[in-house]
UniProtKB/TrEMBL annotation:
Record's protein name: Paraoxonase
Function, as annotated: Capable of hydrolyzing lactones and a number of aromatic carboxylic acid esters.
Entry GO MF terms: acyl-L-homoserine-lactone lactonohydrolase activity; aryldialkylphosphatase activity; arylesterase activity; calcium ion binding; phospholipid binding; protein homodimerization activity
Organism: Sus scrofa (Pig)
Active-site annotation: 115
Family annotation (Pfam families): Arylesterase (PF01731)
Catalyzed reaction equations: an N-acyl-L-homoserine lactone + H2O = an N-acyl-L-homoserine + H(+); a phenyl acetate + H2O = a phenol + acetate + H(+)
EC number, as in UniProt: 3.1.1.2
Spans through the membrane: none
Length: 355
């Protein structure tokens, strides 16, 4: 009888494991092959070799790029080098990148591990750059003031909070006010692996201000990119492992009401919003297995989606760029400026194309 019990439990365990494994592969989009979509006049951006995880373009065409992210489970090409913030002027004919020097006495450069970024421009035109960082695999938001003349970032503050345990991306709505996604509930690498493998969907989004911090949306299977519409009325959240973009109505008290969700056949990462048209530009991973289990012989591809008229009954979705990894691996983010498209990646280079 005892043997029968053990065998039954073993069988149930195996069945559960098989179910989870098949759902895990589906969530990872493990069977997706990519059909290339090319753009004219693409150039790899010189000076970027260890990723360009997130980027944001200011109204004047200056782009901030975070590079050198070390994320548990993802291949790192330069493990000993701290991360950096790069500046690129998209008005130039053949733009190059420049490393922004970080100033301020209390900032530890050696553990800087930049991830999602966002900017906030004040009424007096002061530009604040908010950067998610993972010093020693913890999560902080580093607040900087951009000093354009000196090409420096003055470090003002480190923000930490128990509701910000595992931040992926942020969208600033004030100098010290933002929405943030936590891509996992757990911080410990082993537990986050199981959280993701089992598809617990315990990831969530938070509103942060110096006097109020609150969970505003939850139940995500890996909440990733977050952004806001140009009129500030809608918040967009990418749910990577569910392949969805969610639209929320934002209220005066900062709470969010779900409005609609769009489904895709790709793992959606960071979201950029065109300040003029309101279009969403999304850096995507067609096949997540190739990102998490990196093989140079069979590298991860890249895919950029554009969503027009997202608030209407019939949003238009276009695959603007797609590559099997020969040119660009593991695209995370894409932004437009004056007919050009800048695409960033997890651990690889960045690509600048004409549209
Ligand atoms: Ca961002
Ligand atoms: Ca991201």
């Amino acid at each position: 009888m005892a043997k029968l019990m053990v065998l039954t439990l073993l069988g149930l365990g195996l069945a559960l494991f098989r179910d989870h494994r098949s759902s895990y592969l589906t969530r990872m989009n493990a069977f997706r092959e990519i059909k290339p979509v090319e753009l004219p006049n693409c150039k790899l951006v010189k000076g970027i070799e260890s990723g360009s995880e997130d980027l944001e373009v200011l109204h004047n065409g200056l782009a901030f790029i975070s590079t050198g992210l070390k994320y548990p489970g993802i291949k790192v090409f330069e493990p000993d080098k701290p991360g950096k913030i790069l500046l690129m002027d998209l008005n130039e004919e053949d733009p190059t990148v420049l490393e922004l020097r970080i100033t301020g006495s209390n900032f530890d450069l050696s553990s800087f591990n930049p991830h999602g970024i966002s900017t906030f421009t004040d009424e007096d035109n002061t530009v604040y750059l908010l950067v998610v960082s993972h010093p020693d695999l913890k999560s902080t938001v580093e607040l900087f003031k951009f000093q354009e003349e000196e090409k420096t970032l003055l470090h003002l503050k480190t923000i930490k909070h128990k509701l910000l345990p595992k931040i992926n991306d942020i969208v600033a709505v004030g100098p010290e006010h933002f929405y943030a996604t936590n891509d996992h509930y757990f911080v410990d690498t082993y537990l986050t692996f199981w959280e993701m493998y089992l598809g617990l969907a315990w990831s969530y989004a938070v509103y942060y201000s110096p006097n109020e911090v609150q969970v505003m949306a939850s139940g995500f299977d890996f909440a990733n990119g977050i952004n806001i519409s140009p009129d500030g009325k809608y918040v967009y959240i990418a749910e990577s492992m569910a392949h969805k973009i969610h639209v929320y109505e934002k209220h005066a008290n900062w709470t969010l009401t779900p409005l609609k969700s769009l489904d895709f056949d790709t793992i959606v990462d960071n979201i950029s919003v065109d300040p003029v048209t309101g279009d969403l530009w999304i850096g995507c991973h067609p096949n997540g297995m190739k990102v998490f289990f990196y093989d140079p012989e069979n590298p991860p591809g890249s895919e950029v989606l554009r969503i027009q008229n997202i608030l209407t009954e019939e949003p238009k979705v276009t695959v603007v760029y797609a590559d099997n990894g020969t040119v660009l691996q593991a695209s995370t983010t894409a932004s437009v400026y004056k007919g050009k498209l800048l695409i960033g990646t997890v651990f690889h280079r960045a690509l600048y194309c004409e549209l």
